[in-house]
């Protein structure tokens, strides 16, 4: 299947003049933030807290950033005052604290580089997520890349044709991981060893989250687009347009019941096959680069291509240091076949490196790269940036880290990765974390104070996806203290959190009760 057609490209930028004018009015204070959001959201742009800046969300399907797009990022960061970028759990890259001139200039330049911000927000098919190491990582059931690419190109046609009540999220798994959260989306495809896909639908995180329902198995990969079309039409027909709070596809499953949802879904698939011509003709695009040597860095991991490696770069909270990020982009841009893959854990992979390149990349990002599980903790940007955020999730994560370091008697390496969301919208995917935090409020001595709800035992394991259970609500003031005390318990036991927690749940809950 060919790439995004010229007619679709034109359709994706048709709203730019209206968006640019609205952006000027937003900064001139002649257009209210709520009214601006109605125009800008569908273009992937949102006003930030305080209404003095905006965020532009760059959608990269499955997190893949090619050479042209790397050059766009280099130029953007050199020509504009871009100092705050954030890797989202949707494998997009968010450019924050932009002024009017910057966002108006970058929008069409991003489009020209194949970065279609249209649909990156609002009630649209959102950025498609998937295995960041597809095509290069070992262990996959099969290489989903040709089908993922065809699906992404087709998805962009749906951005301008579907009229949905809420966002439509699609994900792919290579069968050895669930990085794209395929079991927690409107639609998910999981590769199987027999060369087919198993399909899940009607899931989603956020308020009243739901694990997706298995709706089909053994489907031919060439039929993927029929399932995408079918789910889009089902969502369009059965979605709730009156109550936005119950408009996501998971409420359709709730209303119909799982069995009826499965029946209706497959009825829509059958109709799609009768009325549409959407067979995928896979286009293979392998890596031709040859590598030699062995890297000295332990951060390099061998790809399935002999002599080639990838390096993972995980900045704290998903916020890469601006100078480090720019230096990385400038170094890899001229290198043969070297590209980036953003991941849903707010990290990025630099792929197709030879040994020498892998060592240099590891060196460039070393000071800004995670060294412990706790360092890989995930957070949305929080209420100091986001207009709708309830709590400062990013700031709280930093306070927890600072308190642990200041304590002096805690082995940070034993603390777990935590997932933090500033509100129920779950931009930190807290529900699928072993330990998750969600922005909340708590009544203390007749006063309502800022807090976070603590959830436990969530997982996005491919074969055991489950939502965490809320066990406590802890005030912002006490949360760093809670983690310091937890860290001391782990340090005394000389055991990382996961195995310690499995064997000492009663002790953990006693600690939780102390702060609840």
UniProtKB/TrEMBL annotation:
PANTHER family: BLR3264 PROTEIN, FERREDOXIN--NITRITE REDUCTASE, CHLOROPLASTIC
Domain spans labelled Nitrite/Sulfite reductase ferredoxin-like: 53-108
Keyword Oxidoreductase: yes
Coiled coil: none
Keywords, sorted A to Z: 4Fe-4S, Heme, Iron, Iron-sulfur, Metal-binding, Oxidoreductase
Pfam family, one: NIR_SIR
Organism: Veillonella magna
Location of the Nitrite/sulphite reductase 4Fe-4S domain: 122-271
Record's protein name: Nitrite/sulfite reductase
InterPro entries membership: NIR_SIR_4Fe-4S, NiRdtase/SiRdtase_haem-b_fer, Nit/Sulf_reduc_fer-like_dom_sf, NO2/SO3_Rdtase_4Fe4S_dom, NO2/SO3_Rdtase_4Fe4S_sf, NO2/SO3_Rdtase_FeS/sirohaem_BS
């Amino acid at each position: 299947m060919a790439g995004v057609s010229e007619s679709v490209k034109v359709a994706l930028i048709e709203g730019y003049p209206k968006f640019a004018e609205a952006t000027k009015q937003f900064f001139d204070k002649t257009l209210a933030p709520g009214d601006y959001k109605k125009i800008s959201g569908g273009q992937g742009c949102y006003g930030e807290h305080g209404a003095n800046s905006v965020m532009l969300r760059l959608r990269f399907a499955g997190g893949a950033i090619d050479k042209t797009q790397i050059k766009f990022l280099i130029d953007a960061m050199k020509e504009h005052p871009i100092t705050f970028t954030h890797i989202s759990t949707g494998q997009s890259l968010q450019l924050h604290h932009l002024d009017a001139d910057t966002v108006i200039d970058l929008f069409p330049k991003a489009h020209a580089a194949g970065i279609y911000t249209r649909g990156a927000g609002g009630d649209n098919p959102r950025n498609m997520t998937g295995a960041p190491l597809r095509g290069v990582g070992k262990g996959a059931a099969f290489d989903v890349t040709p089908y993922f690419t065809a699906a992404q190109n087709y998805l962009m046609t749906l951005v301008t044709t579907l009229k949905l009540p809420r966002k439509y999220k699609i994900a792919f798994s290579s069968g050895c991981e669930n990085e794209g959260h395929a079991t927690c989306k409107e639609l998910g495809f999981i590769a199987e060893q027999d060369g087919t896909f198993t399909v899940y639908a009607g899931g989603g995180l956020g308020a009243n989250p739901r694990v997706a329902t298995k709706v089909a198995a053994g489907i031919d990969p060439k039929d993927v687009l029929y399932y995408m079309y079918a789910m889009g039409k089902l969502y369009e027909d059965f979605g709730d347009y009156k109550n936005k709070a119950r408009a996501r596809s998971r409420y359709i499953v709730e209303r119909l019941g799982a069995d009826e949802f499965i029946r209706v879904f497959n009825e829509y698939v059958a109709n799609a096959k009768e009325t549409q011509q959407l067979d995928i003709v896979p286009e293979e695009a392998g890596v031709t680069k040859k590598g030699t040597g062995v890297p000295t860095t332990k951060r390099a991991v061998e790809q399935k291509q002999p002599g080639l490696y990838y390096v993972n770069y995980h900045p704290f909270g998903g916020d890469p240091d601006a100078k480090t990020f720019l230096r990385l982009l400038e170094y890899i841009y001229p290198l043969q076949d070297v590209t980036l893959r953003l991941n849903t854990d707010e990290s990025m992979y630099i792929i197709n490196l030879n040994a020498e390149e892998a060592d240099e990349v590891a060196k460039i990002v070393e000071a800004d790269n995670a060294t412990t599980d706790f360092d890989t903790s995930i957070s949305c940007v929080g209420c100091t940036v986001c207009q709708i955020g309830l709590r400062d999730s990013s700031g709280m994560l930093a306070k927890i880290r600072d308190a642990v370091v200041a304590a002096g008697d805690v082995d940070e390496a034993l603390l777990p990765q935590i997932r933090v969301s500033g509100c129920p919208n779950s931009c930190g995917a807290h529900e699928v974390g072993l330990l998750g935090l969600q922005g909340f409020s708590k009544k203390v001595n007749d006063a309502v104070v800022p807090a976070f709800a603590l959830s436990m035992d969530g997982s996005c394991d491919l074969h055991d996806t489950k939502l965490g259970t809320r066990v406590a609500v802890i005030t912002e003031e006490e949360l760093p203290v809670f983690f310091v005390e937890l860290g001391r318990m782990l340090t005394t036991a000389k055991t990382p959190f996961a195995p310690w927690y499995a064997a000492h749940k009663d002790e953990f809950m006693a600690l939780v009760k102390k702060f609840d």
